[in-house]
Amino acid sequence: MRKIILSILGVLFIIASFYIAQNLIANKKKPKPVASKVIKTVFTDTVQNTTVPIVIASNGNLTAKQRVELYSEVQGIFRSGSYLFKPGQNYRQGQTLIRVDASEYYASVQSSKSNLYNSIAAIMPDLRLDFPDVFQKWQSYLSGFDLNKTTPKLPEMTSDKENYFITGRGIVTNYYNVKNLEQRLSKYTISAPFSGILTEALVTEGSLIRSGQKLGEFINPSVYEMEVAISKSFANILKAGESVSLTNLDKTETYTGKVSRVNGSIDATTQTITAFIEVKDANLKEGMYLEASLNAKSIENAIEIDRNLLTDNQEIFVVRDSLLDMIPAKAIHFSDTKVVLKDIPNGTVILKRPVPGAYSGMLVQPFVEQSKSNNSAE
């Protein structure tokens, strides 16, 4: 019985092996599927050489063109004035910004002026007797001498004798001592040199001010300047008076300025040259960050494309007979996002957007807008 079962299993195994072998042979003879060619759709553009302006992009912060840092040259108590000495306070030209208590010093000035008056009065009898021809002008000087006003200039001495006589009495020395004291007395009051606004206040009314102490900052808010650094290659092109377009960071506001000054030296570290752009606008504030676009020069027979379309080998992709190819390109100027190229023949079809994994010989199909295809079908 066992031999019969083993014989039957052996026959079945042989039959199964035969059918499996037949299937393997049949499958081996089937043709392999042909992979379909992938045609990638690309955006293209046709080269048309024109005159491309070179725009230099730079940025910086605004600073007031007229700026004064206020320092004290005298010592005393800060007395209150017509306006509070606070940031944001506006002053007209000539208005008092800071008034330091000068009562004690004023008294010493008045004392010196009185001494000068007395010295001149003491020589008047001698002048009447010895110099009758100059007596009247000195008498007129005394008559116009007012202790509450600025000391008038001494009469002009017309002879050596008169000069020796007046100088010998110490009158000239006393006069210049008084003028020196009056000059220092004027430093107890700081007036606005121009109409503007106080941007920084480091002292308050009633505080003690010391000599050499910084008191604040005062600016003219009507005119601002922005300092920008430009490549040295444009040193001979950038000129004062050229118009400049300025924008804020949000690209919502545009201002027009002009190049007011160009530094005559090049920074040895950065190899850049400094230019100053003047701009006026009621909406501008000191410290604002702006971006500037300066028109440096124009390149004839050139095109401008995205920087990422230019390879590291200074080549660009072109489309020829539905295949990608590469040609050399001469880069003239680079900006943050663009590059200016020359020596690209007119009519050349180039890529408008980069293609991932692009290579020479790649099969492509230029993208055709739907509206254009519909019009051509009609």
UniProtKB/TrEMBL annotation:
Pfam families: BSH_RND. It comes from Olleya namhaensis. Residues 68-215 form the Multidrug resistance protein MdtA-like barrel-sandwich hybrid domain. This is Multidrug efflux pump subunit AcrA (Membrane-fusion protein). One of its GO terms (molecular function) is efflux transmembrane transporter activity. GO terms for cellular component: efflux pump complex. Signal peptide: none annotated. Transmembrane segments: none annotated. InterPro entries: MdtA-like_BSH (IPR058625).
